[in-house]
Design goal:
InterPro entries: DUF6116. By secondary structure, this protein is mostly helical. Helices cover 56% and strands 0% of the residues.
């Protein structure tokens, strides 16, 4: 069950594109490394953001050309 504190934040972050989500996740990770427990619930947010990163990481395929008509 999602936490009532982290669910709205993760809902907002789930709408970000992959590069922006990666930058936000990396910034939070390094801030948490430099000053542990400076941001409340940072560890829970990082786990959720990591999940969002993996879910949004897709390999883009080239679109197939339309079939030739006779």
């Amino acid at each position: 069950m999602p936490s009532p504190l982290t669910a709205p934040i993760l809902g907002f972050l789930s709408r970000l594109s992959f590069p922006r989500l990666f930058v936000v996740t990396a910034a939070l990770f390094f801030a948490d490394l430099l000053v542990p427990d400076f941001i409340p619930l940072a560890d829970e947010l990082l786990l959720g953001m990591g999940t969002l990163l993996l879910a949004s990481w897709k390999k883009r395929k080239d679109p197939l050309p339309p079939p030739a008509r006779r």
